[in-house]
Design a protein that fits this description.
Blueprint: H1 7-14, H2 39-51, H3 57-60, H4 62-79, H5 86-96, H6 100-141, H7 149-162, H8 168-192, H9 196-208, H10 218-229, H11 233-242, H12 250-263, H13 273-289, H14 292-297, E1 309-311, E2 334-336, H15 342-364, H16 378-391, H17 395-410, H18 416-436, H19 440-451, H20 461-474, H21 476-489
Antiparallel strand pairs: 1-2
Helix pairs in contact: 1-4, 2-4, 2-6, 4-5, 5-6, 6-7, 6-8, 7-8, 8-9, 9-10, 11-12, 12-13, 13-15, 15-17, 16-17, 17-18, 18-19, 19-20, 19-21, 20-21
Length: 498
Amino acid sequence: MRIPFTCLALLSLSAGIVIGQTPATSTADATTTQTGVTFKALLEQLDTEIAGDFGGKLSNDPNGRRVIVLATQFQSGIARGQYENSRNMLAELLDAMPTPQGKQIVIQLQQALPEEVKASKDALAAQVAALRDKAASICLAAKKESDLDPLFDEIEAMQIALGPGLDAREQEKLSATREFLVQWQKYLAQNSNGYEAAALAILRSIRDNPTSYPLMPLANIDSQIDLLAQSGPAERVEKVLSGLKTLDELPAAIEAIQSISHEDAQGLPTPGILNELERLESGAVALKSGDYAAALAATIIRPQDATKFVEYGLESGGPMPSGVAESAEYDRFPKDADSLEPEIANVIYSLRGQLLSAVLPAYIALQGNPRPMPGEDPSQYLIRLAGEAAARSDYGAVSQILSAYRVCAFDGAPPPWVDSAIAGCTTYFQGQKLEQAGSFAAAIVAYHRVLEQAPGRFNPVDLATARIAALRKDHSAEFDKAVNGLLEKAAPISPLGG
């Protein structure tokens, strides 16, 4: 008479395990060996083989009891997705199995085990992926933080049920999903309660600091940011500024920003930005009316505004001109010390450059009205013109050009070389005029003043020296008169140096 329970079944029941049971995610029914037998069928064959000897030698022999224990532990581990020791346990079971039929079953299980493990892990990974896709979809549709609460329960349940079978990567994906949901829930909590700025900050933080396994594509997060940004006054101002491309668009942009700032006192992205726009607009109006000095002045930071701004540090984009000191401040632009975004600063810088490029040719009024070359910024344009004027010895033009360069490139506070070059060029030009008028002594004095300036690319020290030598030769009496006059004006030097 057959006993209804095998030894294996009895041992399993005492341990709370049902023989042959696989987890819900198991693929044992589908995984087959090379002979076409499923992994589950092999487990059943192993059970049958061991049960056939119940009450016989397996139940009475120590090795037989070891076979039952090993088989029970192996099937329990497989059912729970614990594959770490399964290969070693099969090797021990093969060694302990007393019958040829049993050994053959164990060998088939060894051959089928890798594919069974892979299929099981793939099934678990698919469940994790499905949960993550579901979470991403719910996040995008959620309106309040409580909409995400069921997802936390599902993640916890999956970690408990599938945890032993999940590899490190899938476990990290579940943890990353939960981490993302925590941040998204914070965003929903702020947004649903009207704290749009805080909600936007959280979204941008999520965008810039993704988890190890991001839950959704970047484009989906950006779309949420765009939707939220449209409603905030500061973001609306930034949007107006980002669309501002030309001087002609200034009046409409200023009106739009004024409207926003009237609705919300915090509408402006930085104090003083509206004043900057209005000043540039006044410069554009002055340019059209022919008041070039006023137009150029509109590009300069007024002394009373200096405390509101700090150096922005935008360079001209080209190499430093030859002879310019390395410490020269090149193409400075104002930036609010607190919150002016680089993108906004670039908008103002571009408009300022447009105004300068339009007003400078008219302001310096050179013959032929030379214009900036393509891609040439105002500083590069002026330095090029100054070099061309110096090459033709037109130092009156050089002085005028460098005076404009002093204003637009350094906001009226240039490094020493600029003022020195302007003084040298201006004085040399005066000397040329005096020499042409026959006032040779006065011309020599003017040329002598050129020599008092520091040498530099634009300072005509060599030319002034040459003119003094020529006038000394051709007009010696006038030369002596000039020297005597210079000596009389020189301060007396005491023997003690006082």
